[in-house]
């Protein structure tokens, strides 16, 4: 269906809020978090090829959006993308058991510890509308509390993000689900607190009223 100008305006507010607008700097490791979006893997590989870090860590088993959709794990599909783009296999680390962001944190940490790779600065690569939630999760759960966290995503606009695999309506619903989690997860101890501007929360409530509710959790 065609979305109204007002719906798109409200969705843009949510999209912009989810971006943390970090400037990418040289780091010890680039970590691509699992998802259904291969453009995330492409962004991580681009950064490795540009020399931002010696390691490219690809994380993700099969999560709520890929279970039943893909036969191969997210990390393994991402690794294929990275190799095709020219990242040597010996510089790729694969964590392919995690099913959510919290497990991304724990299992990636175990992998790096096992390989004796010290990370003082991370570049985390995630979908555009999951930048802020990724930052909040790592700030809370990453065991290396002195590790600097930088978050980036595919450099793409809200208007251009939907594709045959994810519709504009689905993008809006997922964004609202992530915003809800940003609000409620700090109380559960999963993430750090992130202030939500009143206009962003108002946009959330208006879009919920329009029916974009299929990625919400029971509070």
From TrEMBL:
Record's keyword terms, sorted: Hydrolase
Presence of the UniProt keyword Hydrolase in the record: yes
CDD domains linked to this entry: YdcF-like
Gene Ontology CC annotation, any one: plasma membrane
Protein's UniProt keywords contain Methyltransferase: no
Residue ranges crossing the lipid bilayer per the database entry: none
GO molecular function: hydrolase activity
Domain DUF218: 28-146
Signal peptide: none
Any Pfam family matching the protein: DUF218
Protein name (database record): DUF218 domain-containing protein
Organism: Adhaeribacter pallidiroseus
């Amino acid at each position: 269906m065609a979305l109204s100008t007002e719906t798109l305006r409200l969705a843009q507010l949510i999209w912009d809020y989810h971006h943390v607008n970090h400037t990418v700097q040289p780091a010890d490791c680039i970590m691509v978090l699992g998802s259904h979006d291969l453009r995330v893997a492409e962004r991580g590989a681009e950064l490795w090829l540009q020399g931002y870090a010696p390691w490219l860590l690809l994380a993700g088993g099969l999560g709520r959006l890929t279970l039943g959709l893909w036969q191969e794990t997210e990390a393994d599909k991402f690794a294929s993308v990275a190799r095709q783009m020219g990242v040597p296999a010996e510089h790729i680390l694969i964590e392919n058991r995690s099913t959510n962001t919290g497990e991304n944190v724990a299992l990636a940490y175990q992998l790096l510890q096992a390989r004796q790779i010290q990370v003082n600065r991370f570049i985390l690569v995630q979908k555009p509308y999951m930048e802020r939630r990724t930052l909040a999760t790592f700030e809370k759960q990453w065991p290396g509390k002195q590790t600097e966290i930088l978050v980036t995503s595919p450099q793409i606009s809200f208007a251009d993000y939907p594709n045959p695999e994810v519709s504009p309506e689905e993008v809006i619903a997922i964004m609202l689900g992530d915003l809800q989690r940003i609000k409620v997860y700090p109380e559960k101890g999963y993430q750090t607190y992130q202030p939500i501007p009143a206009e962003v929360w108002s946009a959330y409530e208006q879009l919920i009223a329009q029916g974009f509710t299929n990625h919400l959790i029971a509070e």
